Amino acid sequence: MREDKYLVEVKDLCKYFPLSRGRVLKAVDGVNFGIRKGEVMGLVGESGCGKTTVGRLILNLLRLTSGDVVFDSVKLHQLRKDEMRRMRRRMQIVFQDPYASLNPRMTVGNILTFPMKVQELYGGEWKERAIYLLERVGMRTSDMNRYPHEFSGGQLQRIGIARALAVDPEFIVADEPVSALDVSIQSQVLNLFKELQEEFHLTCLFIAHDLSVVEFISDRIAVLYLGKIVELAPSQVLFRSHRHPYTKSLLSAIPLPDPMVEQNKPPFSLIGETTSPINPPLGCRFYTRCSSKKDICEEKHPQLVEIAKDHYVACFQMDG
């Protein structure tokens, strides 16, 4: 059951990467949102828009340039190393590439028990906990003695999910956990993730570029474009009453299962070129691709404003 209290709050989050000749890559630029306890927040956008960077900043895996990440009323960037190490028990990540995220020199049993040993959990009964989690994600007990190269991508992602659950976390960042899997396996892993989220009462940030995937699993969805959130709304509201033109373009790209409906779907295409995140202009980042732009869009970036209950949009079209 979701609560109103935010477990995770992101306030004016920025991450700039310095480049040569004084240039700066603004990967994340003033992002604000909160994730309530027990909620799944979807974060969507094109490749390169800053989704993964946001996830890693929240987990303090990257040092932020400015802003705050508040986890259960604690500002993470102010913690000492030993304090952050203890905090990591409460927050975990499921990586995008299951082949690269598991140590090839360790057996599955060691992969699952190692974080428990580091955090000194379960009174040393690490193997029992590992076997329980392995079976819970649909694997066999005998898989404890096997190595990652002996499994398929879908099996490895199940192991990755079990590893994330090994320390009994409260919050999980799922960084495009099904994008590297075959379509036939994606639904199995998504269903498993949804079951585990409800069973373990997890709070999640689910990162993806596929809106249909995020719709299935998320309570609310934030749409990110070149480091800035352009729309944030409950999942059903976003799909039914989206207002930002970029959100519309993402939704129009979702293929429909009925060929006749898909064929008769009104076309929607973007114009122009994507604005560079390197030293971007002061105006709206979407200005160069928007067919409904105004003069002010080139001069000033719109703020994220609430246009209905829990529905936020950053667009000057909302001003009438």
What does this structure look like?
- The chain has 320 residues and is of the alpha/beta class.
- Helix content is 32%, strand content 23%.
- It has an eight-stranded mixed beta sheet with strand order 6-7-8-3-9-10-12-11, with helices on both faces. The protein has a four-stranded antiparallel beta sheet with strand order 2-1-4-5, covered by helices on one side.
- A hairpin with a 5-residue loop joins strand 1 (6-18) and strand 2 (24-36).
- Helix 4 (108-119) crosses helix 5 (126-136).
- It is globular.
- The relative contact order is 0.14.
What is the succession of H and E elements?
A: EEEHEEHEHHHHEHEHEEHHHHEE
- How far apart are the first and last residues' alpha carbons, in Å? 38 Å
Report the principal-axis shape. Answer: globular
Number of strands: 12
Which sheet architecture does the biggest sheet show? 8 strands, mixed
Radius of gyration: 21 Å
- Regions with pLDDT < 50 over 5+ consecutive residues? none
Count of DSSP H/I helices: 12
Please identify the structural class as seen in this structure.
Answer: alpha/beta
Report the β-strand fraction as a percent range: 15-25%
Mean pLDDT: 90
Strand order of the largest sheet: 6-7-8-3-9-10-12-11
Indicate the percent of residues in helices: 25-40%
